Recover the amino acids of this structure.
């Protein structure tokens, strides 16, 4: 029954997302319904509101990012600011507003806003060659600044030099067909890539991005075939505005759920780092670790320490070099699933209630699912999923016991627990080294593999011996 309801919900959601094209098709199929509505004032305010929404979306992306050195965030910000600036001319130059006559800047700006938005959104979803990615990271803020200057210049010229766009051939049908096809292809590519990102972490902000792009995908064909000032033509304006309404709704849910908009940038950074990791750029693991640890400031350094402890255990157990590399990678990524855990829960100063703890426990299967979707992490996915399993089957998410638990997960469980015990948490102070070791010994056999604990104690002893 639940599965049927879920399938019905997905079907209804798909119909709702496709509503603009369905509505447009209905008006075109019944021309009598497609009445002409000439309303210059309303056009000005609708376009102006959409442009302001796009500008606000750009502001949110920039504010949520740590810097514009992140390629995806830079191009996403450029997409929104381009739509905001260029589409605003479409409204400002509405006859009877700033200009008394009709100028080419009105239709040209509609087409250019769609095209610029599609190009930059697609670039935000594209895996850049290493050299280009490095250059963009170095000059991201400069690129954004020059883009803003260029858009501002476009607005000023359109207002002050009314006829400067008269030679742009967007009124030619062949050009309109080309723009429509190109924009739809670019939006389709972006939808595919952002849908992949959603399947990794399943965050509301990512779902909203996919839906918003699906709405923007429908704008070009409606703009192409909708008779100017007719109801069907107004549908593209409503669709443009609806895309940003959906985006803000998703972000609002995210803000309430996570207590911060930073998760938007974190999710995009995670997807970018995973893509780079697939291409062998392992330094991007550090960026991903930063994104994970930024979710919970009380655990800063936790991933690094757990990786070091796990490596020491692995060496004591005589694991070969290739297994040690895999173990360290799994330790670095063991909490990747927390990217989807609400900040308000991770940073709660008191103990978690039952519902909150259930939400935290979801990070293990979520992390395994993320790793399965990334070829470079696929081999460590079972370890990431199982790092909270315990020897007598009382762990989560699958209740595995004994040798059912991957060896690397058993190793990370010991390292993870020791570091958690010896670190301050919002709800308790750190234990001393001796007290933490006593607790680990107490639950050995019931929760931890005795061989892993023995190897851990030996590695800690060696480290202390060298320090002395």
């Amino acid at each position: 029954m639940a599965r049927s309801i879920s399938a019905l919900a997905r079907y209804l959601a798909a119909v709702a997302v496709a509503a603009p094209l369905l509505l447009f098709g209905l008006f075109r199929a019944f021309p009598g319904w497609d009445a002409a509505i000439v309303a210059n004032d309303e056009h000005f305010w609708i376009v102006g509101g959409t442009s302001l929404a796009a500008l606000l979306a750009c502001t949110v992306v920039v504010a949520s990012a740590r810097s514009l050195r992140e390629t995806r965030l830079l191009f996403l910000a450029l997409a929104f600011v381009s739509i905001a600036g260029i589409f605003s001319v479409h409204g400002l130059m509405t006859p009877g507003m700033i200009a008394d006559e009709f100028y080419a800047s009105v239709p040209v700006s509609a087409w250019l806003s769609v095209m610029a938005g599609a190009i930059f959104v697609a670039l935000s979803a594209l895996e850049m060659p290493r050299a280009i990615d490095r250059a963009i990271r170095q000059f991201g803020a400069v690129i954004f600044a020059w883009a803003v200057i260029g858009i501002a210049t476009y607005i000023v010229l359109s207002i002050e030099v009314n006829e400067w766009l008269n030679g742009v051939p967007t009124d030619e049908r062949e050009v309109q067909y080309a723009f429509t096809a190109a924009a739809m292809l670019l939006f389709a590519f972006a939808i595919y890539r952002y849908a992949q990102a959603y399947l990794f972490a399943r965050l509301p902000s990512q779902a909203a991005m996919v839906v918003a792009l699906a709405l923007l995908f429908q704008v070009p064909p409606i703009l192409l075939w909708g008779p100017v000032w007719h109801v069907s033509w107004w549908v593209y304006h409503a669709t443009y505005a609806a895309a940003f309404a959906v985006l803000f709704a998703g972000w609002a849910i995210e803000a309430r759920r996570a207590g911060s908009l930073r998760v938007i940038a974190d999710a995009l950074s995670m997807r970018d780092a995973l893509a780079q990791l697939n291409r062998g750029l392992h330094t991007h693991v550090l960026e991903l670790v930063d994104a994970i640890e930024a979710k919970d400031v009380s655990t800063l350094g936790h991933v690094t320490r757990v990786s070091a402890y796990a490596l020491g255990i692995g060496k004591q157990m005589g694991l070969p070099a290739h297994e040690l590399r895999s173990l360290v990678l799994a330790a670095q990524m063991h909490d990747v699933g927390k990217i989807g855990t609400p900040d308000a829960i991770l940073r709660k100063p008191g103990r978690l209630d039952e519902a909150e703890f259930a939400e935290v426990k979801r990070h293990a299967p979520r992390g395994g699912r993320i790793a399965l979707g990334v070829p470079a992490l696929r081999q460590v996915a079972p370890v990431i999923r199982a790092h909270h399993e315990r020897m007598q089957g009382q762990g989560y998410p699958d209740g595995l016991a004994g040798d059912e638990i991957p060896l690397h997960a058993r190793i990370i469980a010991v390292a993870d627990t020791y570091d958690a015990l010896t670190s301050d948490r919002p709800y308790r102070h750190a234990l001393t080294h001796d007290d933490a070791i006593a607790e680990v010994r107490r639950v050995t056999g019931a929760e931890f593999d005795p061989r892993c604990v023995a190897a851990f104690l030996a590695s800690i002893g060696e480290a202390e011996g060298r320090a002395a």
Remarks:
- The chain has two domains: 2-258, 282-467.
